[in-house]
Amino acid sequence: MGGKVLDYEAKTIRNEGVEEGIRGTVSILKKLGIPAQAIRIQIQEQYNLSQEESEKYL
User: Could you give the count of Cα atoms lying within 13 Å of 29 in the half-sphere of its Cβ?
Assistant: First the structure.
């Protein structure tokens, strides 16, 4: 396979579901008044995201 990253339908569907879940959770936490910084830290830890990646959800 030569080190290529394989994309397949199930993986794409899973990734889309994870992203939708993160967006929904962030929305709820914002409505509850949780500070954006605290939300960012938690999604970084939970999903192993970089600061830049986590900020796109805020």
Answer: 18
Q: pTM, whole model, 2 decimals?
A: 0.75
51: Cβ contacts below 8 Å, ≥ 6 apart:
40, 44
Q: DSSP alpha helices (H): ranges in 1-58? A: 9-31, 36-47, 51-55
Could you tell me the sign of the dihedral formed by the alpha carbons of 41, 47, 49, 52, in that order? negative
Q: Contact at 8 Å (CB) between 47 and 22?
A: yes
User: Residue 58 in contact with residue 40, Cβ under 8 Å?
Assistant: yes
The sign one gets for the Cα dihedral 22, 23, 26, 32 is negative
pLDDT at 24: 95
Q: Over 90: is that where the pLDDT of 6 sits?
A: no
Token pair of 25 as six digits: 């959770």
